[in-house]
Amino acid sequence: MEEEKKRGSLLLAVVVLALMTLMMVASATKITVGGNQGWSPNVNYTLWAQDKHFYYDDWLFFVYDRNQQNVLEVNKTDYESCNSDHPLHNYTTGAGRDVVHLNVTRDYYFISGKGFCYSGMKLGIHVEKIPPPPALEANSSSATISPPVAAPAALAVAAFIAGFF
């Protein structure tokens, strides 16, 4: 009976740790550039991006015709002039399914070379820090805990209590 309790407590602790890990990973978002249209000519990416927020640790997915387009990160000047001669980074892997990890808060500029930038295949975005959770009201009489803290705390308490049953 005692051995069964230990196994149950260990299993619960493993589940709690797994849930906490999932909560941390869940903050990153996968964003398919261009939505259903993907990375293709004659799409206004400025219009597509204008109502979106791009946060630190998000991922951009570029889906395109691998035989024609590519994904190049360039500086602002080359972005504005569609100059693909000196890219900062070439994300093209040849599969037409390229991924960019937005792991620095800054401006990013992407174009497709081979003349496709002139057909609108250019994207400029600003990556920002994830906003903090809303602050508690100053005159609030009851203290609350934000969800990212509350869930692991509740699970830890549950694991502790389960050790007694």
TrEMBL record:
Keywords: Disulfide bond, Glycoprotein, Signal
Cellular component aspect of the GO annotation: plasma membrane
Signal keyword on record: yes
Residue span, Phytocyanin domain: 29-129
Family: Belongs to the early nodulin-like (ENODL) family.
Signal peptide coordinates: 1-28
UniProt protein name: Phytocyanin domain-containing protein
Gene Ontology molecular function: electron transfer activity
Biological role stated in the UniProt entry: May act as a carbohydrate transporter.
